[in-house]
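Sequence in, structure out. Go.
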Amino acid sequence: MPGQILNGWQTAVVQRQCSHANFMAMEVMRKSGLRVVYDLDDNFWNIPRYNPAIQWFGNKVALDWMGKCINLANAITVSTPVLKWVIEKKTRTKVPIFVIENSIDFDLFAPVRKHRKKETVTIGWAGTATHEIDYQHAF
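Output:
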């Protein structure tokens, strides 16, 4: 049944896969002929104690499964050269890792209003609850 659902797809991009169930799902994807890209933009091997993500990712079991999932992928994308190095060191993966730095393509957004008050500043923010402390420090 799962193979039928994935029929016709070519690539799956996954993030933060770190459990036995995640590994099994990735196996189904691979067996169905999908190329699997594992995308990671956080260093889960060095989570600050104050970050809420530590409760989900900051333990040996999660990190072991993350390594297994990473090694099951066809390719890995990361946001920094340092994170590439960390993954190579922590998982000993032979899967190719590509650094794609975080960026915004401003051509995808509507043009900025030309007539705005110079003293007005607008700041946008996006992220999960794991970035709550970052948000508090931004203002």
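Check: The chain is about 35% helix and 15% strand. Helices lie at 2-6, 20-31, 54-57, 60-72, 81-91, 132-138.
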